[in-house]
Structures are given as structure tokens and as C-alpha cells.
Write a structure and sequence with these properties.
GO terms for molecular function: DNA binding; DNA-binding transcription factor activity. It is a single chain. It is built from six helices and eleven strands. It has about 220 residues and is of the alpha+beta class. It has two domains: about 5-120, Jelly Rolls (Sandwich); about 125-215, Winged helix-like DNA-binding domain superfamily/Winged helix DNA-binding domain (Arc Repressor Mutant, subunit A, Orthogonal Bundle). The strands form three sheets. The protein has a four-stranded antiparallel sheet. A four-stranded antiparallel sheet has the order 2-7-4-5. A three-stranded antiparallel sheet has the order 9-11-10. The longest helix is centred in the middle third of the chain and has 27 residues, at about 100-125. It starts with 10 loop residues before the first strand and ends in a 13-residue tail after the last helix.
Length: about 220
């Protein structure tokens, strides 16, 4: 999360759900600290297939590209009504001379790199239940990092978004959410999800078969 600086609070941009903040391959002319709402990042290959690569919450900065890449590597799409600041690239570079801002930007880039690496490991080696448990635990940790209740997770993303992000089918995501609820790990009401047993979710993340010890599959 960036420190509060007057130079970092210029123009505001409001987005409706589904609206693009920027598109992949557009030139980078600004970065966008997210104030309210949520954003998903979408990569589209030259062959036309799409992969959701991450979610951003208030306090994250959309448009930060590693190694000062001149073009956006992904598209940024609003998950819900959202608001962000628009910080021109020249302003952002000047602000990097502030040690606190520079350290915060490096921390954001480092955290993003770690999450991308975790996603690759998750999709490449984990079972479906482990992938979903990982995402829910990650979202809870992100809420706590922002000073809110980590047990209450508002899922701005749809189940289709979750499926794309985790490399699963929509049917698998829906079945697993029902399964997690039936064994007392979570409760779900619309997009409001409550983590009831974080230790149990952590156990499933570590070993997917642990969920089979908690009761029968839902009918």
C-alpha cells in the first residue's frame, strides 16, 4: 500500500463493473492506485485464449509493470463499481525519489511476483480443492492486511473468474464451494463468504485429501 502523498492523489477515475481501466499492449502512461472496489487482470494470448492472472483490492496499484515495460502486460477490468487515482507516469517516477514511496512500490512489485509464482505452482501441482483453499486463504490475508475482518470475504469475482484464475471448470468451483460449506469450512450467501474454520482450510491447502475426512460429499 502506498503512503499518502498529495502528488499521488490527482485525477480520479470511476469504473463500472466490466469496464476496462486499460487494455493489454496499450502504452503505459499512468499507474492507478485503487481506492475502492476491485479489479481483475486478464492476459490474452496471440492465439486468443484468455487467462485471469490476478485480483486487485483497495491499496493495490494497477499498471505497475516490471522492468519499466513500455506496454501493459495484461488488461485491467473492474469487478464492480470501482474508483482509482490516475497518476501520470512522469509523476510516479518523480515520486519514486521519496524513499517511502520507492520502498512501497518495490514491496508491491515483490508481492505481486510472489503471488504469480504461487499461482504457477498451484495450477501446476495442486489438486482442485487445494487451489480453492489457497485462493480463499489469500483473500482473507489480503483483507487482514488492509485492517478488515479476514473471516468475512466479499467475493467481487464471479465463480467464472475463480475458475479462470485457478485453471478449473465452473462446475468444479461450484461443487467445491458447496463441499467446503457442507463440512463447515465456510458459509456462502450470494458473494458474501465467511471463513468458519481457517485451520481446516489450511489443512486442505496442505493436503487435499484432508477434506475427505470431514464427512460425505454433498448430494
Amino acid at each position: 500500500m502506498l503512503p499518502d502523498r498529495p502528488a499521488l492523489s490527482p485525477e480520479r477515475k470511476h469504473l463500472q463493473a466490466g469496464e476496462a481501466l486499460f487494455r493489454q499492449d496499450q502504452p503505459v502512461r499512468a499507474v492507478y492506485p485503487l481506492r475502492h472496489g476491485g479489479i481483475k487482470r486478464m492476459y490474452e494470448s496471440a492465439l486468443g485464449w484468455r487467462q485471469l492472472t490476478g485480483f486487485m483490492l483497495p491499496g493495490d496499484v494497477a499498471g505497475l509493470e516490471p522492468n519499466d515495460a513500455p506496454q501493459f502486460g495484461t488488461s485491467a477490468i473492474a469487478l464492480q463499481a470501482s474508483e482509482c487515482c490516475v497518476v501520470p507516469l512522469e509523476t510516479a517516477k518523480r515520486c519514486e525519489e521519496d524513499p517511502a514511496v520507492h520502498a512501497a512500490l518495490l514491496a508491491l512489485l515483490h508481492r505481486d511476483a510472489l503471488r504469480q509464482r504461487e499461482l504457477l505452482v498451484t495450477i501446476g501441482s495442486m489438486k482442485a480443492a487445494q487451489r480453492l483453499a489457497m485462493l480463499l486463504l489469500d483473500q482473507a490475508a489480503e483483507h487482514r492486511r488492509r485492517g478488515t475482518d479476514g473471516g468475512e470475504v466479499m467475493l467481487a469475482m464471479t465463480r467464472n473468474d475463480i475458475a479462470s484464475y485457478l485453471g478449473l471448470t465452473l462446475e468444479t468451483v461450484s461443487r467445491l464451494l458447496s463441499r467446503f460449506a457442507s463440512v463447515g469450512l465456510i458459509t456462502v450467501r450470494h458473494r458474501q463468504l465467511r471463513i468458519v474454520d481457517e485451520k481446516g482450510l489450511s489443512d486442505v491447502h496442505a493436503e487435499a485429501d484432508r477434506i475427505t475426512l470431514r464427512g460425505p460429499d454433498p448430494a
